[in-house]
Structures are given as structure tokens and as C-alpha cells.
UniProtKB/TrEMBL annotation:
It comes from the Bacteria. Pfam families: HTH_27. This is HTH marR-type domain-containing protein. It comes from Sphingomonas sanxanigenens DSM 19645 = NX02. SUPFAM superfamilies: Winged helix' DNA-binding domain. Residues 74-112 form the HTH marR-type domain. One of its GO terms (molecular function) is DNA-binding transcription factor activity. InterPro entries: HTH_MarR-typ (IPR000835), WH-like_DNA-bd_sf (IPR036388), WH_DNA-bd_sf (IPR036390). Transmembrane segments: none annotated.
């Protein structure tokens, strides 16, 4: 009897996180679209945010992400991405661990605290713009003219 509410809660969290992952993936796609249409490759770089988005998706999907793969997701030169990973690690937002299947590789993931902050961000963003992926998302509700 006690386990049932816990299971429902876990299902709700999984369902919410699945929506948040879709939102993170949509943000990444929109950024790629912006770069293709508007151009300015590198002018709009936000490697820390790009890293956090990629790591959020990988962490929630329980998919190990090697440091090199995370660097690609940052959309900046590898040395720049590595500096950002170092800084995010110092800030307690990401952690590095040895890959148990290949000791030559290092994995990077969000810390539990950062995972919670990312969940909180997506929950707040969903409240601000409507349900991610749902029919009731309304981006023009902030002003009567839709601007």
C-alpha cells in the first residue's frame, strides 16, 4: 500500500521529465535553426547553456556522455568547451567520472543539484509558456498583439 503512491509519484516525475527532455531537444533544434537561417556562426555562442541542455538530455535518458561528445554539443572549439566543462565542474553543476567500461574515457554528467535546477527551470518555463509539446502552448499570451 505504501509503495503505490511512491510509484505514482515516480511515474509523474518520469512523465514530467520526458516532457522536459522534449523541450530541451526543441531548444537545441531551434538554436540550430536560428544558426542556419540567421547565420552568424559563433556570434550567438552560449556553450555553458548548450552543455547543460545536452547533459540534461543525456542524464535523464541515463545515457553516458563522454567529455569529447559533450564538447561537440557545446558548438564551440574543443578547448573552449573543455574550459566551460572545467568551470561548470568548479561551480558544482557537472561531474566527471571514469568510464567503467573504458578507463581511457571520462564521462560527464549533471550533478544531482543541477539536475534538480534544470527540472525547476523547465517546470517554470512550462508554466510561463504552456505545456511543452501540447496543443495549449501559447507563446503570444504575454501581450494582446502577440509580440
Amino acid at each position: 500500500m505504501i509503495r503505490q503512491p511512491i510509484m505514482r509519484s515516480a511515474i509523474k516525475v518520469d512523465s514530467e521529465r520526458a516532457a522536459y527532455v522534449r523541450a530541451a531537444q526543441a531548444i537545441i533544434r531551434v538554436r540550430d535553426l536560428r544558426d542556419r537561417i540567421i547565420g552568424g556562426h559563433g556570434q550567438f555562442a552560449d556553450p555553458a547553456w548548450d552543455l547543460l541542455l545536452d547533459l540534461y538530455v543525456a542524464t535523464v535518458e541515463d545515457r553516458p556522455l563522454a567529455v569529447g561528445d559533450a564538447c561537440v554539443g557545446a558548438r564551440v572549439p574543443q578547448t573552449t568547451a573543455l574550459r566551460w566543462i572545467d568551470q561548470l565542474e568548479r561551480l558544482g553543476k557537472v561531474k566527471r567520472t571514469a568510464d567503467p567500461s573504458d578507463r581511457r574515457r571520462t564521462l560527464v554528467s549533471l550533478t544531482d543539484a543541477q539536475l534538480s535546477l534544470m527540472d525547476r527551470f523547465f517546470r517554470s518555463a512550462a508554466d510561463a509558456v504552456g505545456s511543452f509539446g501540447g496543443d495549449n502552448a501559447n507563446f503570444s499570451s504575454s501581450s494582446p498583439n502577440g509580440r
